[in-house]
Design a protein that fits this description.
Strand order of the largest sheet: 3-2-1-4-5-7-6
Bound molecules: S-adenosylmethionine
Structural class: alpha/beta
CATH topology: Rossmann fold
Distance between the termini: 60 Å
Number of domains: 1
CATH architecture: 3-Layer(aba) Sandwich
Largest sheet: 7 strands, mixed
Length: about 230
Amino acid sequence: MNIASTSSLVRQYGLGLRCLLLVFLLVPLFTGCAHQPWDIDTYIQNLERSERDVDQQPDKVIKALDLKPGMVVADVGAGSGYFTRRFAKAVGDTGHVIAVDIEQKMLDYNKQELVKLGMADRATFILVKPDNPSLDENSVDLVFLCNAYHHVEHHVDYWAKIKSAMKPGGRVVIVDFYHDERSGNLSFSKHHLVPRERVIQNMEQAGLTFFKEHTFLSRQYFLEFGKA
Ligand SMILES: C[S@@+](CC[C@H](N)C(=O)[O-])C[C@H]1O[C@@H](n2cnc3c(N)ncnc32)[C@H](O)[C@@H]1O
């Protein structure tokens, strides 16, 4: 293609290309997802917005998990602490929460909110690499991921590490958006989302057994797994 035809293309499609670029820049601002490089403060605001409770039903989720005082919960991909704070309350001062994330700023915000609630001593904050949850062996009663499973790329290997961190009788809980119309308008591509059936398959490959499902969340699956 010569210079004349290239500049004619730019003239012809210039506006379209600029619009496309704008869409790529704006869409991430309205999502709750970290696949795009949007600023962390906006991301935190999105995770913490009060309207989220309508669909997320955090109190009902916590109740369904049937946590007991003294339990150890790993909140993997804990983000701003939307669930970390609720776990800290549920496990009491004899229990503990391990908040794990790949973003230091998320962990900082998460900790700061727990400090405000006077519960900072109930949690540990760990900055991890994307392919390693960095949990000690045989240390956790519940590993919980909300809207984080689809971020974890090395599934089988990753889950083998999680499995070794679980105490006997320990559980893994995955809450994540359905990949289809059930999750409604997410304002980001559903391309990254993992179908419920594939999650179950991946986990069983890692030696974890699917044993319970809660169906009260309309936009997300809520699955429980135990050690085989
Ligand atoms: C959509 S947010 C969900 C946050 C929180 N679980 C919630 O429900 O509010 C996903 C979080 O997972 C973190 N994350 C992404 N990949 C991760 C990985 N491989 N390991 C740990 N955290 C990860 C992101 O930094 C982000 O804070």
